[in-house]
Every structure is written in C-alpha cells, then in structure tokens.
Amino acid sequence: MNSLVDELARVVGADHVLTAAGEQAPYVTDWLGKYRGSALAVVRPGSSEEVRRVLAACHEAGAIVVPQGGHTSLSGGATPDGSGNAVVLSLTRMNRIREIDPIGNTITVDAGCVLARVQEAAREAGRFFPLSLGAEGSCTIGGNLAANAGGVAVLRYGTMRELTLGLEVVLPDGRMWDGLKALRKDNSGYSLRDLFIGSEGTLGVITGAVLKLFPEPRARAAAFVAVPGLDAALGLLAVVRERCGDRLTAFEFMTDVCLDLVTRHVADARLPFGSLPAAAVLVELSDTDGEAALAERLETALVDAVEAGLAEDAVVAQDGTQARAFWRLREGISEALVRAGKAAKHDVSVPVAEMAAFVREAGAAVEESAPGARPVVFGHLGDGNLHYNVLRPEVASEEAFAAAAPALTRRVHDVVARHQGSISAEHGIGQLRVGEMSGCKSPLELELMSALKTVLDPQWRFNPGKLLPPDMPARRPVE
Length: 479
Fold this sequence. Notes:
GO terms for molecular function: catalytic activity; FAD binding. This protein has 479 residues and is of the alpha+beta class. The chain has 4 domains: 2-90, Uridine Diphospho-n-acetylenolpyruvylglucosamine Reductase, domain 2; 97-215, 2-Layer Sandwich (Uridine Diphospho-n-acetylenolpyruvylglucosamine Reductase, domain 3), CATH 3.30.465; 219-336, Alpha-Beta Plaits, CATH 3.30.70.2190; 341-418, 2-Layer Sandwich (Alpha-Beta Plaits). It is built from 16 helices and 19 strands. It has helices at 2-12, 21-28, 48-61, 115-124, 141-146, 154-157, 160-163, 192-196, 230-244, 256-265, 291-307, 320-340, 355-369, 398-418, 437-440, 443-456; strands at 17-18, 41-43, 64-68, 86-90, 97-101, 106-110, 127-128, 164-170, 176-179, 205-212, 214-215, 219-227, 248-255, 279-287, 313-316, 343-344, 347-349, 374-380, 385-391. Strands 12, 13, 14, 15, 16, 17, 18 and 19 form an 8-stranded antiparallel beta sheet that branches. It has a 5-stranded antiparallel beta sheet with strand order 5-6-10-8-9. It has a 4-stranded mixed beta sheet with strand order 1-2-4-3, sandwiched between helices. The mean pLDDT is 94.
C-alpha cells in the first residue's frame, strides 16, 4: 500500500498524510477512549476536489476508508479497527463558510465546519442556526449530518434532517454528487439527501451542506418545574404546548436520582427548590417578541399546570444567569454520572405517549436483571428521546456489572421494541450497537439497507463494522 500513501501525498500534500503512530493517535482513539484502532494513513484533504481524488485513489487500490469529522461519536462510529489497513479521512481542514443568504434563510458550509462556527456565522448575519449540542465546540457539520444529530431544540426545529436542504457528497468510487440546492420544495424523485443523512459514513463522504437558518430569537423564558413524576410531566408538556405553541423550544425531563447525583457531584449546580422533588422539567420558550410577553405566557401555563396538579413548584428565571443555572443542572447529569461510577447507557426513543409506560416496564426489567441497580432517566421529553442510564448496584463490583451489562441492555431494548421505539435516538449505531441491529430491524428493513449499501459501496469498504453488520444474511460484501 506504499504506492497508495504516495498517491495520497501527491493529492493533499505530504504534511497532510499522517503515517507515524504518534501523529495518528488522536484520530484512531474514540472520544470516550473506549475504542482504539490503527490506520494505514490519516489523510486530511482541504477541498471537495481533494476528497474526490483521495477516494478515487482508495477505490483503485481497494482500500478501506473511515470518514471522520470532529471525532466526537459516542458509539465509536468514526474509529478504525485494529487491522491497520484503513485510510482515515479527516475533514477538519475543510472549514469554509461558503455562502450565507439572509433572504432565503440558508447557509452553505464545508462539512468540516465546527458547529459553533456555523452558529456564530449565522448570528453575525442576524440569523439563527438552532442545532445545539454539548460537543458543539468540536463536532463538525459533516458528523452532525452523518449521525442525524438532534440536541436540545428538536422539539421546535427538528433534527439535522429537517435542518438540511442540500448536500454535496463524494461516493466511494470518487464520483461527486452536487446536490447543493437551497430548495424547500423539490418533488422530482427520490430524496438522495435523506439517504446520506444518518448513514454514519457508510455510503459516501458528505463534503458540503446547505442548511436552514431562522430569525434570531430576541427573547427567551425559562422555568425549572417540580413535578410528581413522568405522567405529570407529560401532562405539563400538553399544557405548555397548548398555551405557548411553537414558542416551546426545549422540554427537558430529569428524575430525582439525576438531581441528587448532580447536586452531589457537580460543584456549581444548585437546586432552585428547598427540597429534592420526585422529578423536574426544564422548560424554555423563545420568540422574536419581547421577553415580558414571553415570560407572561410561560407563567400563565405554569399556573394552569399547578392548578391541575401537574406541577408542585416552579421557578421562572429572572435573567440569563438564572436560566443558565437551570441548564447547568440538566447538562451536569452526564458529568455527574461519570463521577458516580460505571453505568450501562442507553439512548432510546419511544412515542411520547408511551414514555411513562416504557419507564415503568424498563425499571421492572432492570430490577429483575440487576437488583439494586439505579436507573438514571433524563432527556428530551418533548421529542420522545430518553437517556436511560443504569448505575451499577452498590454491592456489585465494576467487573461483575460490566459482565452483566449486555444482558441488561438487551432487556431494556426489548422494552423499547415492545413500544415501537428505537435503540438509537441521536447517538448513532456505530460499532457500539451494530450487533443489535438484527434485533431491532425487520429482515426486510435490513435487506433494503444492505442492498442500498451494496449499490453505492459494492465491496463494503466504507466504514466497515459500523451501522450494518458485515455478515448480514440478506446481503454479503462482494468478494
């Protein structure tokens, strides 16, 4: 493969082809340190044309390719295996804001643009790009698209699929599809855009995107609400939606276990109540109108909820500082979990109306599988996405819990399936969940997905071992 490395150096420049182990280290270990691989080379193209030439060379040589953006995957979706045969294609040099159209409310960017930079560019143009994630300072638009990222504002603005109008994609054989259209209506055939969004780098490399922009919110109102439980939280969601309509931007749920962990393990997290509630909801509204009117709407909705027994207490943020303190409680849960010990983590979605039943049934399954384990349940209640994490029982060793975790996860995911849900709401399948695809997809779904993969990547050399098992009975890689 030395001839391939030499050709890649001719395409992108020798300085951007990394072959030494020390240089490759940040690219072959995943963000969480769970997966470690090795690579023939890490290639850093600087343009879509260079990506095209790199992939054409890899196709000619029969090389494995692992596309990579900000490398923030929580499922090992952009980490190569340990064979040392893969070319890791890092797009971080491709970071141009290509065009902003404030009239059409669009922004066209390179796939390697960091999410925070896109948000900033939109603000500078007096517009708003709503995707917001904990990793927004390092994740890239290409990775957001490959995983169909969601975040905290899906309730109002949707996932990356809803936020995207057009794509530019280089196929595994080096051909480029220019689908960078800023059209909101295009009823002229199959939506190729939607095929590549959420494909986790298994079908091609997204090199550019046209994204939707929105009027910049001028006012925000936030409240932290104590609720008796998940059923009441769902009732509160209905009340706030009825009173506030599309102004409802975020509706985040967390149990008392979450709040207890945060207040014990995160130094700057403070509850706005005198005692620990059974559960809580963080509600945020946003609008282009004044803050006083928005706060009044929120307060009216909360009064109605209290009178209906759906809320026990509520504190409306008086300023941005207090609102950020509310968000610190929500965002500190993941940090607190790390400090609290080993946990089995699940990123699931179920229909909103099924969420309370799911949590009850999953809790019973957890207690049966691992008595004394503590479910830590939080997430984006308004769009049906829960992070259902399970802390090990205090009497169990980390080794014993790690050994029991796969069976525990299977039980949780069985409950998800009974409620017609998904085992991956926003974190992706990657290599973490690839072995579970046959349990959550029908044979026909897997056959169709496999057939699409084979059409675009006949040798199954693009990001192998991710999303689709290579030994699927419906379709096998071409020898």
